[in-house]
């Protein structure tokens, strides 16, 4: 028995030191994404560029309907995060800018205000509302899959950095889900209690038909 224990310990150490360890799986974006992410790029083809991303240094274009811009650093833009369960994005808000009610089916989100004043909140599955006005340096978390939003509440532009618990967090905007497709207006009217004229107006603005 006294000899068996040291031999067993040595065997475990030896086997673990020779086990195949995969430090990372940089996405091969030439291949389709699967449920577990993208296939790994051949290690001989991996460079330091796969692990860095400069896009968040650029101001987003807020000259649009929502007066806001999202610059993602998800796996499609930043292959090095593939399989790591993380990603980030930049949020730029013009005066009056808003990121409308939306969900991320695949990730929780953490928002950090870099500049300006941002009012943000989410709605729980019990329809409880959690809403807060955030200032520079403040942080707020949005649990996975819950409807949430961000609004520029200040009198100047605002900037935030958001991080996610997935390399591909996914996105569904509620307004576009209701009014940006070809779902017949009478069905939208039935499930939203909005009148037909308002639905047609919103469909026209958001590109929907029917």
UniProtKB/TrEMBL annotation:
PROSITE patterns cross-referenced by the UniProt entry: GERMIN
Record's subcellular location: Secreted, Extracellular space, Apoplast
Organism: Cephalotus follicularis (Albany pitcher plant)
Record-given protein name: Germin-like protein
Binding site for oxalate: 104, 109
Residues reported in the UniProt entry to bind Mn(2+): 102, 104, 109, 148
Main location: secreted
Key words, A-Z: Apoplast, Disulfide bond, Glycoprotein, Manganese, Metal-binding, Receptor, Secreted, Signal
A GO MF term: manganese ion binding
UniProt domain Cupin type-1: residue ranges: 54-200
Annotated signal sequence range: 1-19
Cystine connections: 25-40
InterPro entries, per the entry: Cupin_1, Germin, Germin_Mn-BS, RmlC-like_jellyroll, RmlC_Cupin_sf
Family: Belongs to the germin family.
GO cellular component: apoplast
């Amino acid at each position: 028995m006294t000899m068996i224990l040291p031999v067993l310990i040595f065997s475990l150490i030896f086997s673990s030191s020779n086990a195949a360890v995969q430090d990372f799986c940089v996405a091969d974006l030439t291949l389709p994404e699967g449920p577990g992410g993208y296939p790994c790029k051949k290690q001989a083809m991996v460079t330091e560029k796969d692990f860095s991303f400069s896009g968040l240094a650029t101001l987003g274009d807020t000259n649009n309907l929502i007066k806001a811009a999202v610059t993602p650093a998800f796996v499609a833009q930043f292959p090095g995060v593939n399989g790591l369960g993380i990603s980030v994005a930049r949020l730029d808000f013009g005066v009056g800018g808003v990121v409308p009610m939306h969900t991320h089916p695949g990730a929780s989100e953490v928002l950090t205000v870099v500049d300006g004043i941002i009012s943000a909140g989410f709605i729980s599955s019990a329809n409880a509302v959690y809403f807060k006005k955030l200032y520079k340096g403040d942080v707020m978390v949005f649990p996975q899959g819950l409807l949430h939003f961000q609004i520029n509440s200040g009198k100047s532009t605002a900037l935030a950095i958001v991080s996610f618990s997935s390399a591909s967090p996914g996105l569904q905007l509620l307004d576009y889900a209701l009014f940006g497709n070809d779902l017949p207006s009478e069905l939208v009217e039935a499930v939203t209690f909005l009148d037909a004229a308002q639905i047609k107006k919103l469909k026209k603005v958001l590109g929907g038909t029917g």
